């Protein structure tokens, strides 16, 4: 597995890193589905062990994934995997708790301490602010920033990160936050990394960057042949494209084209849609969900260099008409 330096953190991490949202299983916040159905802890554990074996050494989780289930699965493995081998990231911000806002400092501390218990570690390598909703008139912004920096001073996290689905929103808060690492939503269908100004900021400040949802929850693989109805507690029920037959047919058409162009690769579609994201960053990685050993073995073949010509061709397939 090719390694990259994650910006000014200086950490050497795998170009294809591990996202563990699915390890939390199906879940809801109120009536809103926020998890992934059908995940078994045994599959998660075996995937983690295989990741360590092949050199996928950056694992990303969050307090809200299964209300701590994802963190607990990871924390259960330090008897088999040296903690020092893994660059470990978690997040705070999507569990609203009892304090009226995600970023109330008392709530943030409660969540941080619980995450450390779940992960069975004294310190994480990276703690993200999970989103950029800081309340009316940003009333919790200073509290959030002061709290995460205090966690650094106390040795609870080495580095601080910032994440959001909306890259323009990240840009609104990035100067105030000065994150060591940024985690934006990005894939070949939904890509505002350049237009938002985030790419230029990352390059100028030598921050690390980790792209999440690179296959748009599986949609971009072209494996679906008809509209999908996911189970209770599965986040993908919120993604309208899974119900649109024209989108699904387009993904299948793209799959056929990519399989022909990258026929020398064992997983040509994944080669096309994942490796295309790495061309414009030297300090970045892709966070890819890997729910079982087979998916880890697929990830092991990715992260290679791709020509600009191939990248532009892949991206052109997914541009809206």
UniProtKB/TrEMBL annotation:
Pfam families: Aldo_ket_red. One of its GO terms (molecular function) is oxidoreductase activity. InterPro entries: AKR (IPR020471), NAD(P)_OxRdtase_dom_sf (IPR036812), NADP_OxRdtase_dom (IPR023210). One of its GO terms (cellular component) is cytosol. Transmembrane segments: none annotated. Residues 16-258 form the NADP-dependent oxidoreductase domain. This is Aldo-keto reductase. It comes from hydrothermal vent metagenome.
């Amino acid at each position: 597995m090719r390694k990259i330096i994650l910006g000014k953190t200086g950490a050497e991490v795998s170009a294809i890193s591990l996202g563990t949202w699915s390890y939390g299983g199906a879940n809801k916040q109120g009536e809103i589905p926020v998890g992934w159905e059908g995940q078994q802890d045994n599959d998660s554990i075996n995937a983690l062990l295989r990741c360590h074996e092949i050199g996928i050494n950056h694992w990303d989780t969050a307090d809200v994934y299964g209300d701590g289930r994802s963190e607990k699965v990871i924390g259960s493995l330090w008897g088999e995997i040296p903690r020092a081998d893994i660059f470990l990231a978690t997040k705070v911000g999507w569990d609203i708790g009892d304090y009226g806002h995600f970023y109330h400092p008392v709530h943030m501390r409660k969540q941080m301490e619980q995450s450390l218990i779940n992960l069975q570690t004294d310190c994480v390598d990276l703690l993200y602010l999970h989103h950029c909703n800081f309340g009316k008139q940003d009333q919790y912004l200073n509290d959030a920033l002061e709290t995460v920096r205090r966690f650094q001073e106390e040795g609870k996290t080495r580095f601080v990160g910032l994440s959001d689905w909306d890259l323009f929103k990240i840009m609104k808060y990035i100067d105030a936050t000065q994150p060591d690492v940024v985690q934006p939503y990005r894939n070949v269908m939904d890509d505002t990394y350049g237009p938002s100004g985030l790419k230029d900021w990352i390059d100028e400040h030598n921050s690390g960057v980790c792209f999440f949802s690179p296959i748009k929850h599986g949609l971009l693989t072209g494996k679906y042949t008809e509209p999908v109805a996911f189970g209770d507690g599965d986040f993908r029920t919120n993604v309208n494209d899974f119900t649109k037959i024209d989108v699904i047919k387009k993904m299948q058409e793209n799959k056929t084209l990519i399989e022909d162009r990258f026929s020398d690769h064992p997983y040509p579609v994944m080669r096309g849609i994942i490796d295309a994201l790495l061309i414009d960053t030297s300090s970045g990685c892709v966070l890819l969900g890997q729910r079982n050993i087979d998916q880890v073995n697929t990830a092991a073949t990715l992260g290679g260099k791709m020509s600009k010509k191939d990248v532009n061709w892949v991206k052109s397939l997914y541009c809206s008409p």
